[in-house]
Amino acid sequence: xxxxxxxxxxxxxxxxxxxxxxxxxxxxxxxxxxxxxxxxxxxxxxxxxxxxxxxxxxxxxxxxxxxxxxxxxxxxxxxxxxxxxxxxxxxxxxxxxxxxxxxxxxxxxxxxxxxxxxxxxxxxxxxxxxxxxxxxxxxxxxxxxxxxxxxxxxxxxxxxxxxxxxxxxxxxxxxxxxxxxxxxxxxxxxxxxxxxxxxxxxxxxxxxxxxxxxxxxxxxxxxxxxxxxxxxxxxxxxxxxxxxxxxxxxxxxxxxxxxxxxxxxxxxxxxxxxxxxxxxxxxxxxxxxxxxxxxxxxxxxxxxxxxxxxxxxxxxxxxxxxxxxxxxxxxxxxxxxxxxxxxxxxxxxxxxxxxxxxxxxxxxxxxxxxxxxxxxxxxxxxxxxxxxxxxxxxxxxxxxxxxxxxxxxxxxxxxxxxxxxxxxxxxxxxxxxxxxxxxxxxxxxxxxxxxxxxxxxxxxxxxxxxxxxxxxxxxxxxxxxxxxxxxxxxxxxxxxxxxxxxxxxxxxxxxxxxxxxxxxxxxx
Length: 524
Hints:
This protein is α/β, with parallel strands linked by helices. It has three domains: 10-79 and 127-181 and 314-374, FAD/NAD(P)-binding domain (3-Layer(bba) Sandwich); 184-241 and 251-310, FAD/NAD(P)-binding domain; 394-515, Enolase-like, domain 1 (2-Layer Sandwich), CATH 3.30.390.30. The protein has 16 helices and 24 strands. The protein has helices at residues 10-22, 49-60, 77-80, 83-101, 118-128, 130-142, 198-204, 219-230, 254-266, 318-324, 360-374, 403-409, 439-444, 474-485, 492-496, 508-515; strands at residues 29-31, 42-45, 65-68, 147-150, 155-158, 161-164, 167-170, 174-176, 180-182, 195-196, 211-215, 234-239, 270-273, 276-283, 286-293, 299-303, 307-309, 313-315, 347-349, 388-391, 395-400, 413-418, 451-457, 463-470. The protein has a six-stranded mixed sheet with strand order 1-4-3-2-8-19, with helices on one face. Strands 10-17-11-12-13 form a five-stranded parallel sheet. The mean pLDDT is 95.
């Protein structure tokens, strides 16, 4: 289907995408300029966040990009199966958590767990996800002027040639952005009905789970587990490592970690750290329990009708490895330098194909980095330092060094923290830090009002790290990240002289102001 001279609106795009999704024999969707037989500056294999942003930036610079994607839409897994449903579910978990804590109090009705349905939220998501797909297809064609071939698998012929939709495309460069898929460990019983990961959850779940065992301690495990439990589905997390201590997470302050994990347990979740799943047990083809070896060495059977796999993802590298001989590291990811160049000249890799956080900022910026280098710039992207966040029923945000890391690297470190760690202060009754989203907690359940910590080098007065549990701080941490990592950094004096808005989500502005007048800084 050639749509280059057509201009579908969002509704028409939505219908076109839905038809392609339900019909395996549907034809490719071609948006190609008349001179598409010529050489492209780059073919982006994969139209997810990295490919779409990289191609758009290249086009804006006067380059000639082409995107090829197997799905009939652009945007990749984020709006279709990954981050968008996760954010929907996390928002629902936040709302449900508040309703449960205030059940029958103030203006809250009695909490009815029967009305909180995992299936209902999945159906809500599936009914609405096509809007994002339609918009990205429309925008990339009509506003960004990027050529693309959708609903067609790309076959790499060599480092300058790709075939798709019965055509052959030549390019000076290839940019690999095929994404990643969940990977499951080798545990007996994972073929039973009732075992899901974040992909199959939104595509295949066909019953309302009553209890859940989550295998793995990843972000996905914590976030989806908190959602499941908030709906009334009793949830157990089985993790080999301590939660928030997996290799994929960096700079996790121990006090923040304890607040988060203790909060999960306080809400009734069972968290088994240092535990190993042995097998998933079934009857009549359905999950009935999971056998777990505890840290003590004892084995227990945990009854459940639902197993959720939160054990990570692996990139789709096989074709590139076999055809191009591209270098792959021990974690199965493409080895690249800071310009996103692989071991094969003219071949770049981006997004979930490479090491580093599997986050949207890395996908988009790595795609743009590849595009800008292809177009002649000498640009590096270092994604080793970045702000991070996850959701339980709270937003959890952090950036920079932990207190422990700072004390290893600096001689004099001070901490600004709320609630403070002062012996005998009775801080479980302190309604701070309270802000947007936790005001009701602050006045009735102060121990739930959140946590914050600012880490400062007392000698230079520079902020080294910030850590927050609550709501509404994620946006602020984007800017804290930039300010902290500038060459001149961010001092407690500058932070304390910013303008706070009411009880600003991270509280760091007004608390810094209370200490900034001291020539010799002290903890607060």
